[in-house]
Specification:
This is Calcineurin-like phosphoesterase domain-containing protein. It contains four helices and four strands. It is of the alpha+beta class and 94 residues long. The protein has one domain. The strands form two sheets. The chain has a two-stranded parallel ribbon with strand order 1-2. Strand 3 and strand 4 form a beta hairpin. It is globular. The two termini are 24 Å apart.
Length: 94
């Protein structure tokens, strides 16, 4: 899952965990979901309950398949945006 599964701009992590999306969590665990943090669902906005829908979490994942290595990250690490660090935007989500 490559980030922004939920958004800190529209709900808290608690609200997300109690939402209808929770119905997908058992399937996500069954499929051994790897969660890549995004700019709307950063690591610091979550806690250990991220394990209720993913077996591994990271900002970057290197995935070896056959003779290829895939570098997977959310777009906010590649395309820097003002809202990723500007205190005026971060204030909105606290």
């Amino acid at each position: 899952m490559n980030g922004d599964f939920w958004s800190c701009y529209s709900s808290t992590f608690d609200e997300f965990l109690d939402s209808d999306w929770a119905g997908l969590f058992p399937l996500m665990l069954e499929k051994k979901t790897i969660y890549i943090y995004g700019n709307h669902d950063r690591k610091e906005f979550m806690d250990e309950r991220v394990n209720t829908f993913s077996v591994e979490q990271s900002s970057i994942k290197l995935l070896d398949i056959r003779s290829n290595t895939f570098h997977i990250e959310h777009g906010n690490l590649f395309f820097k945006h003002q809202s990723n660090s500007d205190p005026r935007y971060l204030r909105l989500i606290k």
